[in-house]
Amino acid sequence: MSPLTRSPDLEVAQLPQLLQAARSRYLAGERSAAVMKPLSQALRAILERNIDPHLSQRGGYLQRLVEAYFRLFPRCLEHLSRDQLQQQAVQKTVLRLLQIPSTVIQDEYDRLNRAQYNQSLKQLVLAFSRPLLANRHPVPKLTEAECFLAFFIQCLRQELGATVLLSPQFRHEYRDLLRTVCLGSPDPELCQSNLTGWLWEAMKSFDPLKPFSATGHGRPTFEAWVRTVISNKLADEKRKLLKREADELLFYDNRALHVFQDRYQAAPPEVQREIDPNACAQLITIVQTEITDPRIRASTTRLRQHIAQLLGWTIEYTREIHQQVRRILGRYVQSTRSLNICSTDSNQEWIDNYPDTRTLPTNNGQGVECMVEFLNDPQTPTWVRDWCERRRTQAEIARELFVSQPTISRCLGREYRLWLYRKFFQDPQIPQWMRRWYETQSIPSPHQRRQARREIHPDYARGLCSAKQIDEQIEAKLAQWCERNDIYYLP
């Protein structure tokens, strides 16, 4: 049998059967150590092999992995021996795998066999099961047994990482680093509350045996790794937020199709070539007219299943078109939301809905006094006055704001609307609940934001009206208030 088709070695091949046997006993209510023992012993026997002949004097893979953790985090692990950490990590990882639903494990198997997913992990697993293929490119598809071994190694790394991250010594030893990365993020409180969880999740790919830099692993390279993880995670959070906001526009704004067409026309040719505008228009229309149940919209999977069913598309094609819609609507969202999360991509340009002028528009002189008040408000940014009074060029201000030059007038309109609402809520005749509702926009967690809104508005809590309807009610009140007080209203 050629090495290309050779089965994994017998110890690796038996892992799925051992997992199934242990899972069956565990789900039947058995909690003794004997339930996990066969699987734990098999995994330890595999991982204790020496897969690097150049390091044979240092022991097998598992021994070298634990030793690397002790060298990197000596104080965090000073209460444990190497044997204790090794045994504890394997046992806790096996127990965790018995508790994870089989569907979740299957999803992990599917992820592991994506073409570009974690090549180094796949090569490591093949070094145990099919060593002749370990350095082959592209890496061959993993068997079920190899997928399980890969997933176990990821979870084992997380268990070792948890032992370090949850120790009091870690917080003390890396206090300055953790403080710096949190203070340097756009939302320090969010970063601080999620920091340990983010690092623990990333530990599944952390391998102290593999150099993070040319000099190998040490405290400086670990700190660099932490900064990289947090930077990537914050970028992921921005992308998730952008997806949510693009979907909210898709679900609740009847201008979504118009906005999509407008932003598609404004996109560079290289972006347009990657978009199918007709299919995207079909998706937007079907979502807004046929899929109005919030329970379906709450789940991206269910939403795509219904779209595919109604339009006769495959799930894969539906996912692709939904991503295209999010991408284009996201360009609109980025150009209108808070500046601290605007894209800094210099290739991303936007067409503005507001005139590119040095002053806000007025209607027959309406609201000239309010414009002066707006410019003199201490909460109005200095760049707004510089823009209107021509103290600095458009390019200088754009560089300060990290936005493209055509976006400045939109940012100007945003600042004016922020001032409008500040002025609006200062009026004692405006109901206090409107101000409290408006302030919930700053709550980053959708769950906490909905909970706060339920406490503010009883009809929303009972499901008698949507958040969009209440937003429109407040906006209509603002428009009436502006007209009554001779203040220019900018929608």
What does this structure look like?
With 491 residues, this protein is an all-alpha fold. The longest helix has 34 residues, at 219-252. The termini are far apart. α12 crosses α18. The protein has 26 helices and no strands.
Walk me through the topology.
Elements lengths: L9 H4 L1 H13 L5 H15 L13 H12 L9 H18 L2 H11 L6 H11 L14 H22 L2 H6 L1 H9 L4 H15 L16 H34 L3 H11 L2 H4 L4 H14 L3 H4 L2 H12 L3 H22 L31 H9 L5 H7 L5 H8 L6 H19 L5 H8 L6 H11 L1 H4 L5 H18 L7
Helix pairs in contact: 2-3, 3-5, 5-8, 6-8, 7-8, 8-11, 10-11, 11-12, 12-18, 13-15, 13-18, 15-17, 15-18, 17-18
Protein name: Tlr1006 protein
Organism: Thermosynechococcus vestitus (strain NIES-2133 / IAM M-273 / BP-1)
Quick tags:
3 domains; Tlr1006 protein; 491 residues; single chain; 26 helices; mainly alpha
Proportion of residues in β-strands: under 5%
Helix content bin = 55-70%
Tally of separate domains: 3
Uncertain segments of ≥5 residues (pLDDT<50)?
1-7, 338-367
What's the alpha carbon Rg, rounded to whole Å?
28 Å
Count of individual helical segments: 26
Organism: Thermosynechococcus vestitus (strain NIES-2133 / IAM M-273 / BP-1)
Protein name: Tlr1006 protein
Can you give me a brief rundown of this structure?
By secondary structure, this protein is an all-alpha fold. The chain is built from 26 helices and no strands. The longest helix is centred in the middle third of the chain and has 34 residues, at 219-252.
